[in-house]
Amino acid sequence: MRMAELSAESGVPVATVKYYLREGLLPPGERTSPNQARYSAAHVQRLRLIKALTEVGGLSLASVGAVLSAIDGDETPHRTMGVVQQELAGTPPKVSDEDAEWASGRLADLMRRHGWKVHPPEHRTMANLVAALATARELGQETLTERLEEYADLAMHVAELDVQVVARLTSIDNIIEAGLVATVLGDRIFAGLRHLAQEQVSRKVLGGG
Amino acid sequence: MRMAELSAESGVPVATVKYYLREGLLPPGERTSPNQARYSAAHVQRLRLIKALTEVGGLSLASVGAVLSAIDGDETPHRTMGVVQQELAGTPPKVSDEDAEWASGRLADLMRRHGWKVHPPEHRTMANLVAALATARELGQETLTERLEEYADLAMHVAELDVQVVARLTSIDNIIEAGLVATVLGDRIFAGLRHLAQEQVSRKVLGGG
Lengths: 209, 209
What we know:
The structure is a homodimer. By secondary structure, chain A is mainly alpha-helical.
């Protein structure tokens, strides 16, 4: 298909498509004349993926680039998903050393008890989690962290479902892309369901209106 | 305490504190002379809350303002949390009419089966959820949405835990603030735990490395 069709199919404006081509986020089409190229269904899918990562996932174009390089690289699916999760995690907020130390201990404790391991040990997901726990403590909301074991158990159930969803696909490319989509959209979908569910429970407990 | 101490206690720079005072995000201190004011522990807590909302929750200052007005207002806790969730949800991404219609039907179906109700019926959490489901479909990842019932069941368990955590606090102010903190930090903490758990499960299923 031509550029105009690619834009219409993917819902991404022509100027944006051209920008992604220049930035290397989208591979070049097959050149048919000095001024024209032909694009395929793979280009449409790649554009939709970029849209999902930026609009739903809230990723910067730099993060999208890092994620796509990982997908297109030769790493194992497991390592690729590691890169994806790093980029999704963003930069952890600043917290005081004392609160950070307390939160690290709390998390290490939890992981030991659940037999969870991470490689490399200090990755960004952990740094974010530590910062969030430290912030809860700073705000005097330790109650939230007292039930961390139960949250971890439920997170494990969700993760098992996530991996079942992803593992149903057979091709390696699909598994990685599905893993990416499952992570980005999955977080948003689960947060949305949780908020709706909170509304059901809180109406009963905290009183209506 | 004086401004310098308020800044040190909260970890928010003096210039930023002054900006928040001008913008009305932080209530004025008690004036002790034409050039000086005295601040209380409530000011420290409010600054920490603003920091958590912006740095961990990723909220804009405009959204923080809306959330704080809701907290300081006369609404019921349930309605206040509604405002909080609207602001946290952000603006839903654009999707095609066809996919949006499909996703709305899918969500309406789920909510009917679970007996979930929302007031007002079209709020932003729903709009975001619809957009995320529609994006999954657009990317050919309907597998994610096929297990929506199971995700909703798990979300209900998480929400029950959330409300138990919040309901343990007795004062109304604390309940609302705890609800806010639980929502903002709770989403981040759960997403972090889920990613760590995914890593445990996926290492076994997708192969190591």
